[in-house]
Write a structure and sequence with these properties.
The chain is mainly α. It has one domain. The protein has 16 helices and six strands. Strand 3 and strand 4 form a beta hairpin. The longest helix has 30 residues.
Amino acid sequence: MTLYITSLVFFLFINGTLQVKNRSSKVADRCFCKLNGEIDDCSCKVETLSVLNNNKIYPRIKSLLSRNYFRYFKVNLKKKCPFWHDDSRCALKDCHVDTCKEEEIPSAIKKGSSAYRYSEEAQKEESCAEEKELSALNTTISDESIQAFKDWKEHDESQDLFCDIDDESSADSEYVDLLLNPERYTGYKGESPHRIWRSIYQENCFKPQTEYIYGPSKSSSPLCLEKRAFHRLISGLHTSINIHLCADYLYQENLGYGMKAHWKPNVAEFQKRFDPQTSNGEGPQRLKNLFFTYLVELRAIAKAAPYLQEEDFFTADSDEDKDVRQGIDDLLNIISTFPDHFDESKLFAGNPNEAKLLKDEFRNHFRNVSRIMDCVGCDKCKLWGKLQTQGMGTALKILFSGDDIGPDSTVNAQQKKHFQLTRSEIVTLFNAFGRLSKSIHSLEMFKSLLSKS
């Protein structure tokens, strides 16, 4: 009898354990059910991109982003929300961004690489000449100048600028050390972040036009490739942000004499956001959209490779600058050998007049998205939202610049008359891509944790 009871208990224990493992396995299978095969509207496969990122790109981009050139980002976190009164600021201390003191910023980054290379005497002479010239103020503006301003405005509007970039000369712009202000869950939640994404998706993100036929039944007209691409880009960005919030989730620990904050992965939160049963069936597609966004930004870096290889990445620390240039060359060589890049020539390829209108609409929608980031109530979330949208905007600028577009086209330093990247654009391009790279790398961790939970 004792042997029977022991055997029964052992059977129930093993059977229960197997059922729990089976349920966990099913959760993992549900969340990751679309992470296989070709990425939508692309020939590249999810599995191929995962291997490339996790084994080759992620370790290199992670190392590069720890360098001074990439870790300091000048941003204006005090800009007013242009769309509504922002009355929902996050009061939690983990929403706060620690800005850098003046003496903490490498002087070459503050002054700009070209100015820093002049001798002190040359800078002094130039400063005196500028002071004499600027002290004699002339307020007259000729008719020719007024016309020139109009030409400049038309030229600026013709550029492929897909997002608003902060004026770095503004008194409200400050340098932030990105390593000291990591992207993670801060406790910012509720109506404010929901309003941000609701505004992005409902007002600025293309969606199918639904027509109601015969009462409750309905059909949706399919989106064109460009509008599908826009929606996937935004969804992929949103997914990446959510993965970071789940990977570094805020927990409060009661130590008896006070609360202590610490961060670790939150598997339940990841499941909530990406399990089809808790995400209205959309979670797996959101994860797949992450790979689309990654592929687009990967292609942008590949296209800009000749330009980037001519950059100095100057911070006045000769050893570090040398290491950064070597690291950039190493990363670009790996990216250039990837055989299945996104083909931007498929976008805006129809009737020229219709394509121009669609491209303008595409650009204006994305610029609105970048402006919405100034409505984020949490400073740390705003910082990373602004950085990543600017990085994506820089990627789009690269894709549609140069003498040609398509998987074999490039932009280089000889094209600077028509195409240039500021230090801020380069910093946001690499940091935004680094966020996507880390997100894809984190998926393996969550897959493992879900299977074990």
